[in-house]
Amino acid sequence: MNDTPIYSDIILQLMEEKGLNQEQLAKILGVHQTTIGQWLHGKKQPGYHSIKMLYEKFGIEPNELFGL
Q: Of 11, 35, 37, 47, which is most buried by a Cβ count within 10 Å?
């Protein structure tokens, strides 16, 4: 079983689909590149602003991001 949170998998999938690296996604969302890395490793969850930006820029629903 995969121990990474659902949002990590969804963000990684988004990056792969859009051909984005951590730096590019960070710039789009207005966060630091290390923040993206922390999300991908499950060390930090996206905050309200980032969740809103993921929805606005990529159409990812907050409930989908957290597997609800």
A: 11
- Report if residue 44 sits inside a domain: yes
Q: How many CB atoms lie within 10 A of CB 15?
A: 16
7-55: pLDDT as tens digits? 999 999 999 999 999 999 999 999 999 999 999 999 999 999 999 999 9
8 Å CB contact between 37 and 22: yes
State the CATH number of the domain containing residue 11: 1.10.260.40
Angle at 24 between CA 38 and CA 13, to 5 degrees: 65
